[in-house]
Structure formats: structure tokens, C-alpha cells
Write a structure and sequence with these properties.
By secondary structure, this protein is α/β, with parallel strands linked by helices. It has 6 helices and 8 strands; from the N terminus they run E-E-E-H-E-H-H-E-H-E-E-H-E-H.
Length: about 230
């Protein structure tokens, strides 16, 4: 496995950075890995490396590059406050364009077989949902995406399979919100929603107190099956 940073050209002519982790075998499907509010930090890089070892060309773009490039936050209260401020200032439509540009850039990496999926966590879970509608991905996975219910207008544009992971003890996403998302999606969208029992928000991140090894491992297996069935 080899890692590096690449530049991606935005629609406005500027460029932003993305972390790249290539599979040891040298060839495989692409995977857009979308950060939480903490940036492309140690954990997100490790997630890319983890999926690269599974055979994916994993790429994590710098989402906040317009406001504060290459942030690398930890999980203390000050970092959470700063990350939430950046998230609140995020322009979803511009970000969707950046993600679409990143997907195209991944397809042009020689190691990529042409198919590209996406996976995102928290803020990235929302953006993975946005990708399914706007970025031309072939598959999508969303982990505890915050704010998905605010964008029901994207649902008719989702044609790729999408898997949603939620936690039943999530203090940021209530069961009522999950039910609203289920009702908005209906049966026409190729979607699957899993609510994990005994889990809290951020259960996938081993750097956070909410990490749940059992649930994270189960969800990761489900995500791999979902991605490989569609990629």
C-alpha cells in the first residue's frame, strides 16, 4: 500500500488537496472517503488505508479547503466547536461540485477500474447522500449522516444503491429523524437503512469515546458487502 496527496481542480479553477491510499495489488474500484467535521485527520487517513488494504483506491478530499485548508482536528470540545462552525458555513452545492470533481479525478487514477463508490461519516454521511444524487457515484454508504432529512429534494436523483447506518442511541439523530428519512425515501430509491442497537453517534471512530468495536466491525462488513455488490 502506498499513500500520497493529490490535487483536484475545482469548477472555479482553484484546486484542493485529497489524501490517496492505493491498494497493495495496485488495481481496484475507487472509493471516495468523506471526512467528519475534524478534517482529513489521522482517523480518516486510517479509514482510507483500511479500505485500500481491502483493494479500493481510497481518496479523502479536503472538504473545508475554501475556509480553512487541511485542518487536522482532534475530538476535544474546542475542536468540536471549530468543526461545527466550519460545517455550518459549508455551501452544500459548491461541496457537491467538489465531490463530483473528486469522483472524476479518482476515475482517472491509473489504479482505478472505473467504478467509484463513496463512504462518509457524520457530516460525511450527509455528503455521501449528496454524492449519490449529485456526484455520479456507483454506490454510496452513509454513516450517521447529520442533516439528511433537510434535503428530501435529492431523493429522486439517487439511482445508485445507498446504505444508511444509524445508531439507536444517537443524541444528534433521533429515531423520529430516522423514520422521517425512511418515509422520505420510500420504496422507489435503491436504499437500505440499518439502525444499530446499543450504539451511539461516532461508533465507527476508534479515537472517540463512542467507539463500539462490535457495531463498527459489523457495519464495516455490511458496508463492504454493499460496495462490492454494486462496484
Amino acid at each position: 500500500m502506498s499513500t500520497s496527496w493529490m490535487s483536484v481542480d475545482s469548477a472555479s479553477g482553484e484546486s484542493f488537496k485529497a489524501y490517496v491510499s492505493l491498494p497493495p495489488a495496485g488495481f481496484g474500484p475507487g472509493l471516495l472517503v468523506i471526512q467528519e467535521i475534524f478534517g482529513v485527520n489521522e482517523h480518516i487517513k486510517a479509514v482510507c488505508d483500511q479500505y485500500a488494504n481491502d483493494g479500493f483506491v481510497a481518496v479523502a478530499p479536503d472538504i473545508f479547503w475554501r475556509d480553512k485548508p487541511l485542518i487536522d482536528f482532534s475530538y476535544d470540545s474546542e475542536s468540536i466547536k471549530a468543526g461545527k462552525k466550519l460545517f455550518n458555513n459549508l455551501n452544500i452545492h459548491l461541496t457537491a461540485s467538489d465531490l463530483q470533481r473528486t469522483v472524476e479525478a479518482i476515475r482517472h487514477i491509473p489504479s482505478c477500474n472505473g467504478k467509484v463508490g463513496c463512504i462518509g461519516f457524520c457530516m460525511g454521511g450527509l455528503l455521501s447522500y449528496v454524492c449519490a444524487a449529485r456526484a455520479g457515484v456507483d454506490s454510496a454508504v452513509s454513516y450517521y449522516g447529520v442533516g439528511i432529512e433537510n434535503y428530501p429534494e435529492l431523493i429522486p436523483d439517487i439511482t445508485c444503491p445507498i446504505l444508511f447506518h444509524f445508531a439507536d442511541k444517537d443524541t444528534f439523530i433521533s429515531q423520529e429523524v430516522v423514520n422521517k428519512i425512511k418515509n422520505n425515501i420510500g420504496k422507489k430509491t435503491p436504499a437500505r437503512i440499518i439502525v444499530h442497537k446499543g450504539a451511539s453517534h461516532g461508533f465507527n471512530c476508534w479515537k472517540r469515546s463512542s467507539w463500539n468495536q462490535s457495531v463498527a466491525t459489523t457495519a464495516r462488513g455490511q458496508s463492504l458487502v454493499h460496495l462490492m455488490e454494486s462496484l
